[in-house]
Amino acid sequence: MTDYKMKVHGRLTSNEPYSWAWGITSNQTPSALVTTMAAALADMWSNGTYGLGAQYAPGIRLDSFDIITLGPTFRETFKQSHTLTLVGTSGDAPISDKSTMVMRKVSTGLQRWQRGFTHLPAPVEGVLVNGLYTNTARDRFTTAMRAVLSAITADGSTLYVNTGAADPEHPEKPAYTKTVITDVTCSNKPGTQRNRMNKVVGVYS
User: 82, 72, 74: which is closest to 30 by C-alpha?
Assistant: First the structure.
């Protein structure tokens, strides 16, 4: 089995970039994994039942992804990139680019380092009620991301999080240790990634 990182790249309505990454352990070659994930991400975006593209304004895009081969301490050793052309299709107005849809990565472990979070771009304004995403919108995101997870695990590959280097402030946490993620689920509470707006210059009048 080889450890990989899949890093997804896109653009927000401000044209600022966003990205998110998942760790994958697989027997597939990089080229084969590119093919698998290209199909999975296209389905995530365009599926007629749960596709996320219908939840995004046209200014939000998914442009490409990388399959990055990792070494024993999760250092990057090789990268293969693939271009996508996936654009939002909703006619509704977008939420601020600093808002996100928060997805939790769940394992059977109970320690903080045995789970993780992914911040996806926020959907359109129409799915917000009293400051929260509707259950329908939240469940659509959960279903779409579970479909990506299922595409990964179909041949025995796994999604994982890893602890990284040793942390002197947390000696109880083992270094470079993977935990297999068994499920993903999205929250109805919007998250925030303020750094996504750092390069946007305000206009005063």
Answer: 82
Q: What is the per-residue pLDDT for 199?
A: 64
Q: pLDDT-based confidence at 148, cuts 50/70/90?
A: very high
* pLDDT of 205 over the 90 cut: no
- Strand partners for 100: 121, 191
Straight-line distance from the first to the last Cα atom of the chain, in angstroms, rounded to the nearest whole number? 58
Domain boundaries, the chain: 2-197
Cβ-proximal residues to 162 (8 Å cutoff; 6+ apart), any chain? 23, 74, 176, 177, 178, 179
- Residue closest to 156 by CA, chosen among 23, 5, 26: 26
**Angle ∠(120,12,56) on CA atoms, nearest 5:** 65
Q: What whole-number distance in Å separates Cα of residue 160 and Cα of residue 108?
A: 12
**pLDDT for 72:** 87
Q: pLDDT > 90: what percent of the chain?
A: 76
Give start and end residues of each alpha helix (H) in 14-103: 30-46
